[in-house]
């Protein structure tokens, strides 16, 4: 070869190299400058039950059902890659081998035999929501696919496909598709199910199983045949899968606890996964019970139910209404949150406070006779009077006059203060100071807050926060009253005769009926659970003949039946509980004597505790608690948490056998039944 030819060859080779480098650099710039669409894909909010299953899922803003993929069956992923893009983990977004194969087949057969679209190119099309038929569309998708491979990992690209792939109608993504067509999460899919989910995105509308089951089956079976031919699926498994029927209807997405889930979703960011403490089996049973409870009632009567574990504060079931899509019953209103009159269901708290203050004991005699409290002359529900009877019986019969007498002695603000300590929001009808009628239900309070207050009663006076959101329930500070007083009330409530056919002494419960028969309620608890039932009309109009004992109580007992084996017995009495007949009680506790409220100006001569002061925190060293008082007529009786601690004392300074630690409700009674009260904390 002459030097001239050799030089020309070197120049040609250099020119070729330079041209290749230029093409490479140009291609690199073409990919690098590709405009990327937003890679964040909106998914619907999910509210989950305590076992991780979906209580309710919400569509995205445009109405599409699209959910975060979550765990997906690995066998489905293997089959998807094998069928759609066997070299997915080896190419850079565009598979040149597939392009050459598809082009050669098209030239040889005169028509398209196979496609060259990779999973990455399909993701590019789904992100752009573009078409696949035109050459310019294919080039745009190829460019975007190459760019995506530079910005995302293979796992991220596959995740986008699992979110965006269409499966018919407004269903997108493999998880929404699995729920819609199979009613299950895609964690475990049969070969037939996996094959159908691979076939549907290729032509989601013409292969919809609910509209075109034959086309869906043919497409599924083609996928199974190819998976078997490529060794991804055993031939026997493929034949068995082809025998499985195609689903012929689209299932509804889960919608348990609709009122609760709607409220939680509205307060959370879009696409959130909200974990709750709802027990799905109990929730389903409660919703079915609510439907039966209103089945024989007038068209506008609804019901609300709430069940919680009072050991933890976790709400286990919440039914805001009988039918949330029923406009006649105002089903969209969450009646667990609506403030309504509690009727007589607040009476147990009056008695617990009175027991705790030493004003009464379950065996104390109290009067049920006509009496006037200023201009107000309350009546019992049946407009009859029982005369002198034990406090225990007055509460069991839900008499009005005895509880108003106790409320007068306590002061109505004391009852409201206890409810607020329980975390309840109490609405008064006017801005005026509360009157004695609050003990008969003359306030507004929601069913959830009422159940929360009863949870404190079940916990022997210790309040807690109820919540259906995981991790948000728990104890509250302080105490409503002492454990002895709480147990005494619970013991009375557990002895109230249950509805016909229900087992006695299983739960402590109280019913209530508001003025004008607008609200019928039943609240109850056992050793582990607390529950409430409200029945009435959402608009507050009367329901003639509605009584808590007849309407709500049977539903409450049936609700506890649904709790099943998780029920627990009520606790035994605390060690300090004074269980004595009336004749053996300290003289001031044998008969209740009405007197001015404890928050009024101290009556001349009444006992007054001068030490310790209200709310004091006192460090103890094992020597007992020194107490001092002035006024009053000896002998004096000292009570701690409702139980007599010292009887017959004639001195105004003494040492009580208290060593702590803990909350103590301290009461002194004089010979005339007058009292003073202090709440203190003893520290070790």
Automatic annotation (TrEMBL):
Coiled-coil annotated spans: none
GO molecular function: carboxypeptidase activity; penicillin binding; peptidoglycan glycosyltransferase activity
Pfam family, one: Transpeptidase
Domain Penicillin-binding C-terminal residues, every copy: 603-679
Keyword flag Glycosyltransferase: yes
InterPro entries linked: Beta-lactam/transpept-like (IPR012338), Glyco_trans_51 (IPR001264), Glycosyltr_51/Transpeptidase (IPR050396), Lysozyme-like_dom_sf (IPR023346), PBP_1c (IPR011815), PBP_C (IPR009647), PBP_transglycosylase (IPR036950), PCN-bd_Tpept (IPR001460)
UniProt pathway annotation: Cell wall biogenesis; peptidoglycan biosynthesis
GO CC terms of this entry: outer membrane-bounded periplasmic space
Protein's GO biological process: peptidoglycan biosynthetic process; proteolysis
EC number(s) stated in the UniProt entry for this protein: 2.4.99.28
UniProtKB keywords: Carboxypeptidase, Glycosyltransferase, Hydrolase, Multifunctional enzyme, Protease, Transferase
Residue ranges of every copy of the Glycosyl transferase family domain listed in the record: 72-227
Reactions performed catalytically: [GlcNAc-(1->4)-Mur2Ac(oyl-L-Ala-gamma-D-Glu-L-Lys-D-Ala-D-Ala)](n)-di-trans,octa-cis-undecaprenyl diphosphate + beta-D-GlcNAc-(1->4)-Mur2Ac(oyl-L-Ala-gamma-D-Glu-L-Lys-D-Ala-D-Ala)-di-trans,octa-cis-undecaprenyl diphosphate = [GlcNAc-(1->4)-Mur2Ac(oyl-L-Ala-gamma-D-Glu-L-Lys-D-Ala-D-Ala)](n+1)-di-trans,octa-cis-undecaprenyl diphosphate + di-trans,octa-cis-undecaprenyl diphosphate + H(+)
Tagged with keyword Signal: no
Segments forming domain Penicillin-binding protein transpeptidase: 305-514
Enzyme class: transferase
Family: In the C-terminal section; belongs to the transpeptidase family.
Name the record gives this protein: peptidoglycan glycosyltransferase
Organism: Rhodobacter capsulatus (strain ATCC BAA-309 / NBRC 16581 / SB1003)
Higher taxonomy: Bacteria, Pseudomonadati, Pseudomonadota, Alphaproteobacteria, Rhodobacterales
């Amino acid at each position: 070869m002459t030097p001239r030819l050799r030089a020309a060859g070197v120049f040609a080779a250099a020119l070729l190299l330079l041209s290749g480098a230029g093409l490479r650099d140009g291609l690199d710039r073409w990919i690098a400058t590709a405009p990327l669409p937003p890679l964040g894909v909106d998914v619907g909010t999910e509210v989950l039950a305590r076992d991780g299953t979906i209580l309710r899922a919400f569509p995205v803003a445009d109405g599409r059902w699209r959910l975060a993929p979550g765990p997906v069956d690995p066998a489905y992923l293997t089959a998807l890659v094998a069928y759609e893009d066997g070299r997915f983990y080896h190419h850079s977004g565009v598979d040149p081998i597939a392009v050459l194969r598809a082009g050669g087949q098209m030239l040889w057969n005169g028509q398209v035999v196979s496609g060259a679209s990779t999973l990455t190119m399909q993701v590019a099309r789904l992100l752009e929501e573009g078409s696949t038929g035109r050459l310019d569309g294919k080039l745009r998708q190829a460019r975007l696919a190459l760019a995506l491979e530079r910005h995302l990992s293979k796992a991220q690209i596959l995740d986008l496909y699992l979110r965006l792939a269409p499966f018919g109608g407004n269903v997108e993504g493999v998880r929404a598709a699995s729920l819609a067509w199979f009613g299950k999460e895609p964690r475990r899919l049969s070969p037939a199910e996996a094959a159908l989910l691979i076939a549907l995105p290729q032509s989601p509308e013409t292969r919809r199983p609910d509209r075109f089951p034959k086309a869906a089956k043919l497409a599924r079976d083609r996928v199974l045949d190819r998976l078997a031919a490529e060794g991804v699926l055993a031939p026997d498994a493929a034949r068995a899968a082809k025998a499985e029927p195609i689903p012929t209807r689209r299932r509804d997405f889960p919608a348990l606890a609709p009122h609760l889930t709607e409220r939680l979703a509205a307060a959370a960011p879009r696409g959130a996964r909200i974990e709750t403490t709802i027990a799905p089996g109990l929730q389903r049973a409660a919703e079915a019970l609510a439907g039966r409870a209103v089945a024989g009632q007038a068209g506008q009567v609804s019901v609300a139910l709430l069940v919680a574990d009072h050991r933890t504060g976790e709400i286990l079931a919440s039914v805001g209404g009988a039918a949330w899509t029923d406009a006649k019953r105002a089903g969209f209103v969450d009646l667990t949150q609506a403030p309504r009159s509690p009727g007589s269901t607040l009476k147990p708290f009056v008695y617990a406070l009175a027991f705790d203050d030493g004003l009464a004991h379950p065996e104390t005699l109290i009067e049920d006779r006509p009496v006037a409290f200023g201009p107000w002359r309350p009546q019992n529900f049946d407009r009859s009077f029982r005369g002198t009877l034990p406090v225990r019986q007055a509460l069991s019969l839900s008499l009005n006059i005895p509880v108003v007498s106790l409320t007068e002695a306590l002061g109505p603000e004391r009852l409201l203060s206890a409810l607020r300590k329980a975390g309840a929001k109490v609405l008064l009808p006017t801005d005026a100071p509360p009157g004695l009628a609050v003990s008969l239900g003359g306030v507004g309070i929601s069913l959830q807050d009422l159940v929360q207050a009863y949870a404190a009663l079940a916990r022997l006076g210790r309040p807690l926060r109820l919540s259906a959101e995981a991790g948000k329930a728990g104890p509250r500070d302080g105490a409503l009253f002492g454990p002895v007083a709480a147990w005494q009330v619970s013991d009375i409530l557990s002895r109230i005769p249950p509805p016909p056919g229900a087992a006695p002494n299983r739960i402590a419960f109280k019913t209530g009926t508001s003025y004008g028969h607008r609200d019928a309620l039943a609240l109850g608890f056992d050793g582990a659970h607390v529950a409430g039932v409200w029945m009435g009309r959402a608009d507050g109009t009367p329901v003639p003949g509605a009584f808590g004992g007849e309407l709500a109580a049977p539903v409450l007992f049936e609700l506890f039946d649904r709790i099943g084996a998780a029920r627990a017995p009520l606790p035994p009495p605390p060690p300090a509980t004074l269980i004595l007949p009336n004749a053996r009680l300290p003289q001031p506790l044998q008969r209740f004597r009405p007197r001015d409220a404890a928050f009024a100006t101290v009556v001349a001569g009444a006992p007054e505790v001068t030490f310790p002061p209200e709310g004091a925190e006192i460090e103890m060293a094992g020597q007992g608690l020194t107490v001092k008082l002035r006024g009053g007529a000896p002998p004096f009786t000292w009570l701690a948490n409702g139980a007599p601690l010292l009887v017959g004392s004639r001195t105004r300074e003494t040492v009580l056998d208290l060593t702590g630690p803990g909350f103590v409700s301290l009461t002194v009674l004089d010979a005339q039944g007058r009292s003073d009260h202090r709440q203190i904390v003893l520290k070790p």
